[in-house]
Design brief:
This protein is of the alpha/beta class. It has helices at residues 2-29, 36-50, 117-123, 149-163, 176-188, 213-220, 223-230, 248-258, 260-276, 279-292, 300-312, 315-318, 357-360, 386-402; strands at residues 65-68, 71-83, 86-93, 101-105, 128-134, 168-172, 197-201, 232-233, 244-246, 298-299, 322-323, 326-327, 337-343, 369-374. A nine-stranded mixed beta sheet has the order 1-2-3-5-4-6-7-13-14, sandwiched between helices. It has a three-stranded antiparallel beta sheet with strand order 8-9-10. It has a two-stranded antiparallel ribbon with strand order 11-12. Helix 2 (36-50) crosses helix 9 (260-276) and helix 4 (149-163) crosses helix 5. The model has no long low-confidence stretch (mean pLDDT 89).
């Protein structure tokens, strides 16, 4: 009844949000408008109420252009391959020069791939960018079957096949494990679409290293607890009715609880900016939370397998990871250059967890391995923001360029 209880509560609050939006419109169009401090505080309060909502639809990437060389080039988003649990998207920039093709593997951890908008925007300066656009499990009918960790790896391999030989792969956070597994499988099979480089950013290759609160929670409870406490059936109003999922709203609550004071401060600042008419400052906060409050559900099997295989058993780090029953051996990777990136202030994926990939890829020659530590960023700053653009991205770009 977990999902049904959440949906019932959201349905109860919806009329209040709708009323707040209508009053906002009326206040903005009335001839007298909001008058003085009281009027501005009133409209600010209305907007805060109208924003009290978790959405389940993917926001738009809103990437329409990119700086290529010394000019802004138009960018269109194309669907390259559409599969039940994920779509391969391409950001096609208007340029005649051939550019390295990069597959960005987005996390499947409660948020949409648009969370990597800044990552994609920066990569577009020098690359032909593709991304894994994962589906919201509550919108995938039961007839589509299951989607677990092995299926995730299959999707990565299928997407690389669609892009073609000579591509590069960049994984952010949770899918670093699956990306490394996919490259290992392809390397062992001498697959022609095996990527030339593999960039792993802030991912739990070995979560036993410097465990964070996320790691500790995953190992502190039994699988039965996760199944009984966090898994729910999708309500009948949605296409995926009856599918058992880990709801995105629970992941959002978990993330927020880790830094609740920061989120409270941000919303107090938002109210203050709205009340003072500081639209630019308010817009930055609203844009972030529009993205942050857009959530997707994960299939039960993918979530439970991730808890068990990635965090509790650390199968990749211990050499016990399998793909459809076949052992995954990163030692088979011989020609795909490896770059790992970690943030010194990352409280989700701590130091050493991603760089562990270097020991696993034991057959790679030293000149094909590189690790970058960005000491002054947290988890989000590894792939978004000023440090990503100015200090981390050049390292990624140079690694890819060296293997072209």
């Amino acid at each position: 009844m977990l999902y049904q209880a959440y949906q019932f509560q959201d349905d109860l609050i919806a009329p209040l949000r709708d009323l707040a939006r209508r009053l906002q419109i009326f206040s903005a169009t009335a001839f007298w408008g909001p008058v003085g401090d009281m009027g501005r505080h009133f409209t600010a309060a209305l907007e805060m109420i109208s924003r009290f909502e978790i959405t389940h639809e993917r926001p738009d990437f809103a990437i329409t252009s990119a700086m290529i060389g010394n000019r802004m080039a138009p960018v269109t988003v194309e669907t390259v391959l559409d599969m039940p649990f994920g779509t391969l998207l391409r950001f096609a920039a208007e340029t005649d020069a051939p550019r390295p093709r990069v597959l960005v593997v987005a996390p499947l951890s409660g948020h949409f791939a648009t969370l990597l908008r800044g990552t994609v925007q920066t990569l577009l300066r020098d690359h032909d960018v593709y991304i894994t656009d994962w589906a919201n499990a509550r919108d995938v009918p039961l007839s589509a079957g299951r989607f677990g960790m092995d299926d995730y790896v299959d999707y990565i391999i299928r997407f690389l096949e669609e892009i073609g030989p000579g591509a590069h792969i960049l994984a952010v956070c949770q899918p670093c494990v699956q990306a490394l597994a996919a490259v290992a499988v392809m390397s062992e099979e001498r697959h022609p679409a095996t990527p030339r480089t593999m960039t792993l950013m802030a991912g739990p290759i070995d979560p036993r290293e410097s465990p964070t609160k996320v790691n500790e929670l995953a190992v502190s409870k039994s699988l039965a607890w996760f199944e009984n406490s966090l898994i729910a059936a999708v309500p009948w109003r949605y296409r995926g009715a009856g599918r058992r999922v880990y709801p995105g709203f629970l992941q959002l609550v978990a993330f927020m609880s880790m830094n609740m004071e920061r989120h409270q401060d941000a919303h107090l600042k938002l109210y203050d900016h709205l009340a003072k008419g500081e639209t630019a400052e308010a817009g930055k906060i609203k844009n972030f939370y529009d993205e942050y409050f857009a959530v997707l559900d994960l299939t039960e099997e993918f979530y439970i397998e991730t808890i068990e295989r990635v965090f509790q058993k650390a199968e990749l780090a211990t050499g016990n990871l399998t793909h459809h029953g076949r052992k995954v051996d990163p030692g088979q990777i011989r020609n795909t250059a490896l770059l790992t990136v970690e943030g010194g202030r990352d409280d989700i994926c701590a130091l050493g967890q991603t760089s562990a990939a270097h020991d696993l890829c034991r057959a790679l020659r030293p000149h094909l391995k590189r690790h970058h530590l960005q000491a002054n960023v947290g988890h989000y700053g590894v792939f978004n923001g000023r440090r990503w653009e100015g200090e981390i991205y050049p390292v990624v770009r140079n690694m890819i360029l060296a293997m072209e």
